[in-house]
Amino acid sequence: MRTSATRRWCRHWWLHGLVLLALGLTSAGIWADESDPEALNLLRETGEQAEHLHYQGILVYRHGSELETLRVIHRGGSEQERSERFYSLTGTPREVIRKPDEVICILPDAEAVVVDRRQLRNPISEAIPDRPETLDTAYQVSLGGMDRVAGRDAQTVLIAPRDELRYGHKLWIDREHGLLLRADLLDDQHQALEQVMFTEVSLVESVPDAWLEPGTSGESFSWLRPDERPDSDAVEPAWQIAEPPPGFTLISHRQRHLAGHDYPVEHLHFSDGLASVSVYVSPKEGTRARERRVRLGLMGAVRLLRDDVVITVVGEVPPVTLHRFAEGLAAASPPEVEQ
Asked: Which residues have CB under 8 Å from 151's CB, separation 6+?
């Protein structure tokens, strides 16, 4: 029990305290039909620049009535050079070290260290889409006014959803350096769901190795490591989403080995350019799974039972979107056989 609870704790903090940098808008009704090319170009340039920046600063994260303060240290560079360190300055002590080949989450109160080989991106650059030009199907993107965040001039970018299947976003970008300074997310009633912002940040010429060393070694803690069995492409997929919700496309379809599962789980990963949804299909035999609906911050999950399988849909999207994915799951069409 302690192991599973600790994993959930670490995942919750990392995904919802940091990675779920999301953004907000003011009014969907005022948007033009097409996105502003200048706004899309700013997002593209910011994404390219942010990965190579070296910086340190203090982030404030707010979700509902909860407030957390974190220090972030980021080393930019190539994919094999980028590293970062986050640690809490308020509340329960927690720390995350991201290296090129693994992510380490240190939980002093639980006397545990969780190691994951999944490569979670920098939560600041995570809010900037890799390919902004693909957003137009699901969002309308435009420039807002100028503002100031952490003592820096910031250009606002508004990202409005075209339907109720995703959230809207607002970004504050340091245009000079291409650094995201603040990110708000609003629901369909334009109420803030989450806010993440720098209260202070400084760009530096380099980040010494010592800055990235954990504050606690964790040598005497319990170390929880991922299943070492490698994931693989689903050579003969058993399941598919024949008609994904508008704007979402299939990014990957794999067989994954997850802790607590004796057999591989079929994993379908979808994205609309900003929001992502994962669909997991596992055998029901030998499990005591029940249908459930859960929300942790912006992360929602729906579990449904169908025939001999358990369907779990997880994503940073409104509940209606999770249900659309779950209800759209169907057996994959058998491959055509040449005569």
From this structure: 200
Instruction: Give backbone dihedrals phi and psi of 87, rounded to 5 degrees, phi first.
Output: -150, 145
Length of the chain: 339
Domain borders along the chain are 2-224, 232-331
For residues 129 and 274, the answer to whether their CB atoms sit within 8 Å is yes
Q: What does DSSP say about strands 112-116 and 222-224: parallel, antiparallel, or unpaired?
A: parallel
Q: Give 127-190 as a DSSP string.
A: TS-S-GGGGGGTEEEEEEEEEEETTEEEEEEEEEESSTTS-EEEEEEETTTTEEEEEEEE-TT-
Report pLDDT digits (tens) over 243-261.
Answer: 999 999 999 998 877 665 6
Pairing mode of beta strands 152-161, 168-174: antiparallel
Q: Please tell me the CATH code under which domain 232-331 is placed.
A: 3.30.200.100
Q: Does residue 226 come out as left (phi exceeding 0), alpha (psi in the -120 to 50 range) or beta?
A: beta
pLDDT value at residue 337? 41
**Residues facing residue 253 across a β-bridge:** 268
Sheet with 276-283, edge to edge strand ranges: 232-233, 249-256, 265-271, 276-283, 309-315, 299-306, 292-296
Percent of the chain whose pLDDT exceeds 90: 41
Whose structure tokens read 């779950």?
326
pTM of the predicted model as reported, rounded to 2 decimal places: 0.80
**Distance (Å, whole) CA 319 – CA 298:** 10
Adjacent-strand bridge partners of 185: 169, 194
- The DSSP string of 257-297 is --TT-SS-EEEEEEESSS-EEEEEEEE-TT-----EEEEET
Long-range contacts of 104-108, Cβ-Cβ distance < 8 Å, separation of 24 or more: 104/214, 105/10, 105/13, 105/14, 106/214, 106/216, 106/218, 106/221, 107/6, 107/9, 107/10, 107/221, 108/216, 108/218, 108/221
Q: Which residues contact 120 (CB under 8 A, 6 or more apart)?
A: 14, 19, 98, 103
Give me the CATH topology for the region 2-224.
outer membrane lipoprotein receptor (LolB), chain A (2.50.20)
